[in-house]
Queue: 4 jobs
Job 1
Amino acid sequence: MLLTLLTTLLMCLPVGEAQTLSSPDGNLEMTFVLSEDGSPNYALQYKGGNVVMPSVLGYKFRGRASAKTPENYMRVGYDTLDFHSGFRVKDVQRSTFDQTWSPVWGEESRIRNNYNELAVTLEKDGIDMIVRFRLFDDGLGFRYEFPQQKGLRYFTVLDELTEFRMAGDHMAWWLAGDYDTQEYNYGESRLSQVRDLLPGTLIDGASQHVVAPTAVQTSLQMKTDGGLYVNIHEAALIDYPTMTLILDDEDFSFKADLTPDATGYRGRLCAPCSSPWRTVMVVDDARKVLASRLILNLNESCALDDVSWIRPVKYMGVWWEMITGMSAYAYGGAKAHGAESGNVRRYIDFASEHGFDAVLVEGWNEGWSDWFGKQKDEVFDFVTPAPDFDIEGLNEYAHSKGIRLMMHHETSSSVVNYERCIDDAFDMMKRYGYDAVKTGYVGNIIPYGEHHYGQFMVNHYNRVLRKAAEHKIMVNGHEAVRPTGICRTYPNLVGNESALGMEFRSQVLPHHVTILPFTRLQGGPMDFTPGIFEMDMSKLRASSRQQIHSTLCKQLALYVTQASPLQMAGDLPEHYLRHMDAFQFIKDVALDWERSVYLEAEPGDYVVTARQAKGSGEWFVGGVTDENAREMTVSLDFLEPGKKYVARIYRDAPDADGVSNTYETGSEACSRYEIIEKKVTSKTKLKLHMAPSGGFAISIK
Ligand code: NOJ
Ligand code: CA
């Protein structure tokens, strides 16, 4: 009787009636509704104005074969299981959450996680799917959940149908959608212009697969004509393919596009499971985008019991000389081998003398002469050093000088091979005292047909992280999937590349670093490798005509505007020796922060950030601009009132210029800077000039 009553009650739940959810401050309102045919939709408003117009939720799955026919055993013979209409609302749950947590490292020592939650259980043909919404003051997160149940166990995704319908032709800072690379320049345009401009943002690489003429990656930053900043991304990408967005440039809507696997499927799931969070950040000030912790908050808390071994790392590397073609990764060729023991010792000496923590050595192992450009399964074994790299002696030497060597595992994207070797590789690292590895995934993925951002690879990157954690090893993954806040759960993920970094030299556009904090860095820190002091690449390699378009002070500022617990001083020791006064900033700057204050910001234009170091309480300020010179007034009102401080200011000289350098003119104007010291208080306002593609850096004691 009771059961029948309950069932009847449940059946009577108002299908079609909207469920609304407000953010804690009441500014955002999310509406969920089932349309007449039982299709789930959501919409998002900010102070009553539309941000996301009613947008589709749901999936197409591969159907179960009902009869044993040959067709049903052929992939094409399987039915499409409609998981986007014909639902009824079975249950609705609401809750509120408000907690403050402390990350192991990061932009601030305490983070508030405050949201209202709505979980809607949808039912179709006896199968349940929950859509869970979390609405924060700075945006929305939602995900699909498939509880453990009869009737759904293993299933295959044909398509995730999630839409994000924008309310207009917004300005956007976008990266071309690609299943294999993020090493492109950002486009800056209205949504309606993406199609025309996208080809011009592409950069040739070792593995690329552009998704569609209007496909863009997340995190995607937009700005409405009304001045709202809207950012779409995903959080907690675990056991699921990465989402790209396909733009319909006539009605300004985006549809999710999941990275396919080698057989064309878009994910293989096993209940109980859930999708990553789909996120829509909405704020009314660009600085609030930088201050948002939406992505981290939607990740699970730290999964590691012991984090005492995870530490910030400032490092140098036997690296820039290879990237620029001065010396070789490979041993035994015509060019000098960068990782030769005497050369490595030279870096160890310099790094130790200037207070660094580590030295990365690339090309230390065998395999490099037999790799690039070939798709080959077994290239590296990750344990055999080149004959001139004295692994034991160099580690001992480094340790005697307070330096750790940093391991490099270029996997050549042969992931099967890396997984075969990884236990031995990590064991060897521990034997010699390495505690950090830079991984790399250059080239097409092996197994053939898999993409860098497919579910198989997402699982691989996360497996490496967990395995590294078992060995107390920190990871910095290059060419890996764009981060989605996973570093909260696995704080040994101290860095990722996953975007165009300084190693692209002249290809890095002046506005690039004014966009990264809004986009790529939303998911976690980047190993951008700043600190380049010599902008003229012909000085390193006579045949090069490349010029880096940045002033020296802008390079300093990046240590603050792009927070990371892992920071490299990318350039060569001899280039630092020429500017020891400016190098002082790199030596001084902190890597882990008590507090961050976002002073000025506009995507594509400029970013000015102040951060207080954890422990010492010292402040560091960084400012960067795009190709335009700017005059900035920086108020130091974040300092403690009544206290007196000394500020050391590194600024572009009045005639500095980070943009106009060519091979013919040389790059002298890039490195015109001034360093002044000044007494300051919380009442001080500093007027600072930024040259074209320039910047400034300040340390305050
Ligand atoms: C690409 C990485 O981003 C770069 O830093 C590294 O030196 C090369 N791959 C070689 O593995
Ligand atoms: Ca790279």
Note: Residues 415-432 form the longest helix (18 residues).
Job 2
Amino acid sequence: MHIYKLERIWITAGVAMLAFFLAVLATAAIVDGYVPNSRIQTIDPAKISETPPFDHPGLRKTGDKAYEAYYVAQIFQFTPRKLTIPVGSRVTFYITSADVEHGFSIPETGVNAMVTPGWVSSVSHTFKSAGKYLLICNEYCGGGHQLMASEVDVQ
Ligand code: CUA
């Protein structure tokens, strides 16, 4: 089979780029220990109800307009069902799943995390405007997936 010189150059360049990107990725993963930043902490999904702070899901005040919110996702609901915070609050959400893969998304805020059993996902957001924000599951998790929602009320 005849391969033109220019073709050979482009194939070589393409393969070299691919190898370079893979090397960067492998270096970050192995040497620097990078993992997806939403998954930093493990938890036993069978023992969520007895593992603090997930044994009492909900809001914790950590400072002036600073909060931590602990959520348990489970077919087909989030606990807590509703969060009420003052406008301007910065909330760090910690979410874990008691059963299957769920999503954790507050549209229009950038809050979006996958919730995997065995892991604690984390995402932060500052709520600058008042309103009722819908918090939804955006990973298909079964027959009641479309019912899986919660509310963040920013007052
Ligand atoms: Cu939980 Cu979809």
Note: The radius of gyration is 21 Å.
Job 3
Amino acid sequence: MIIDYQSAALIIVDVQNDFCPAYISGGKSYPEGSLAVAAGGDVCAPLNAVAKEFAERNGKVIATQDWHPKNHASFASGHPGKKVGDFIDLGSAQSQVLWPDHCIQGSEGARFHDRLNLDPANLIIRKGSNPLLDSYSAFFENDRQTTTGLDGYLKAFSISTVFLGGLATDYCVFYTAMDAMRLRYKTYVFTDAVRGVDYPKGSVEQVLSAMKVAGIGMITTSDILQN
Ligand code: VGL
Ligand code: ZN
């Protein structure tokens, strides 16, 4: 696949400790994240390889970070009588899944996975800071209107194509990819560099087909690294 890197961006979604199983890196052990996605840390190696390529060829690299206040409305802990996995109405278009406390601002769980190389990153976008509103997409919060500024950044550099990887396939990657399409970016997802929550069961399969139907390209990192 031939890429015009000058007009392309790599968006690395939420590769943070709370979304990853326990691991050891640099002689330090990191505990299982509170919302660990199976094999979440495995996305680091392919994303590092692609990010290096983007940096060397003058593409933009953006990393996003889920960044919640400790009383965030998506946490089951703040809703008496509700448990993780229950659904509530937060007044946005979609009903809200209640999650374990995760990615609390400044916590170890909110830090990027230690094996993710951020040296190539041009921009880090933090999202989910409004205690009353969740933000899956890197472009808009879940009210579908409040911008994160990412679209403006990409437009300022005349970016027309985005490539996505990270966590989780069925939440933040999915919503980011769908918004990218809606905003008319050519959009590709690296299937070897995403991992999903798969809650409710089957949601990973469901979003993969929804993304294909929407015209999002499903490729692997080797498709761009081989030439
Ligand atoms: C995410 C659930 C809650 C994600 C973030 O990064 O996909 N999922 N917050
Ligand atoms: Zn979150």
Note: The two ends are 7 Å apart (CA to CA).
Job 4
Amino acid sequence: MKTLRLKPGKERSLQRRHPWIFESAIARGGADSGETVRVESHDGAFLAWAAFSPVSKIRARAWSFVETQRIDAAFLASVCARAVAARGLFDLQSDGVRLIHGEADGLPGLIVDRYGDTLVAQFLSAGVERWKAAIADALLEATGLHKLYERSDASGREREGLKPVTGWLRGEGATEITIREHGWKLSLDIATGHKTGFYLDQRDSRQRFAELAQHRRFRRVLNCFCYTGGFTVAALAGLQAAGAMDGAELVSVDSSQPALEKARANLALNGFGGEGSGVKAEFLDANVNNVLREFIEQGRTFDAIVLDPPKFAPTAAHADRAARAYKDINRLALKLLEPGGVLLTFSCSGGISADLFHKIVASAGMDAQVDGYISERLGAAPDHPMTIEFPEGEYLKGLVVVKKPA
Ligand code: SAH
């Protein structure tokens, strides 16, 4: 058994069950990519079993803090089964579900989403890469499903010294899938979509947006960074429930043409926004920053705006530049809001804390000379859990800002 010996004082985070062992904490020891190592304190006390990753800054990720635990296929099968079973604890109202959320589920670097009867997995660390076959079998066993598609093409793989891999890992089937989320249908493509094909983490916020649309009967909605149109569909579902679709205008903006095509298709799939529906749905293939500026120049206003940008700050090191980018779009969006209008604004950057995000939005409000109420705080849906030991797990945060009436 290979061993990693830590430097004095570097045992503390593992003792708190934080699963990462940084290169800088290691005094000596090493192993092959993904190989299991025994991690010990400077004086030889057992700390964890971990998967070694020879090139990553996160040099090892803990599998278990129990000395008697054997790290083998049976162990991984039990961890997978536990994570899958835990999803039954949440009322998700969707057949698109995140089954394994990496570190939070004890499987560092593994993401698994279920879309109907198809599983999509991202193997993003040396440890889960090495155990891929065992994990794939365990996932099918735990879910009773037969199809598993691999989307290991995220940038995190490079940092682990791993090449991108995509394709069917078990079984085979259609890559275009329609899921049911709340009362509506959403089509996605697991082979060509972002990440595993869809942003399941925003499920509850989309539902909240539908409720707000129903309650407030929005007339003009701007969905920025719309991807495949989830928030637009949600708004229309809310307006339909209120009997207020007629005359509504919805602008959806993204810089990805394929995403916009899907967004259009998703409206049609739900019977929204077709000819004679009374709804005006616009799709703009453009940079959100430019669109916001143009709309201000044109004097356009909206009574609801969604800002759900990509990750501007992957780590805290990018926080400064990202903060400026977040502030900019929030300032522009606040200007475009009608008094009483609603802004749903998000950051999915791990490097921006909830507190910092609040401050960024506050200073955007100052610059825009807009006063607002923060009526709600939003976060990732519960199948993307955070754990007590792993604060990095909190990545997605959102605020509902209501512009004070004039
Ligand atoms: N709100 C979406 C997810 C948004 S993901 C949902 O509920 O599914 C972020 C999106 O921003 C991606 O679709 C990406 O194509 C788009 N994007 C990134 N930078 C952009 C920019 N500068 N202008 C417009 N869209 C951008």
Note: The mean pLDDT is 96.
